Amino acid sequence: MVGFAPLTSRGSQQYRALTVPELTQQMWDSKNMMCAADPRHGRYLTASAMFRGKMSTKEVDEQMINVQNKNSSYFVEWIPNNVKSSVCDIAPRG
Predict the structure, then answer these.
(1) Is 37 helix (H, G, I), strand (E, B) or coil?
(2) In this structure, what DSSP letter does residue 30 have?
(3) Which CATH number is 43-94 given?
(4) Where in this chain does the record put each Tubulin/FtsZ 2-layer sandwich domain (predicted)?
(5) Which of 10, 42, 43, 46 is 20 to 30 A from 30 (CA-CA)?
């Protein structure tokens, strides 16, 4: 299941820069999923998050750990370190 953040129109992207916590929260929001499913009705085996733009990898890692800790019941416990993240410092075009 793919989530996308920020999920905005091209015209409104230039008006507001989002923080890493805001992007992370939006990424896991069921309204930002690319299919008609609610991830809260199942469990995650693994997850991957890819961020683009200039941001701190430390902050990204902290936010991903926070998400996993807050939502631990949605992640299987028998796969350790099942959330991976990466940061590409080249901002998306647009």
Answers:
(1) coil
(2) G
(3) 3.30.1330.20
(4) 1-93
(5) 10
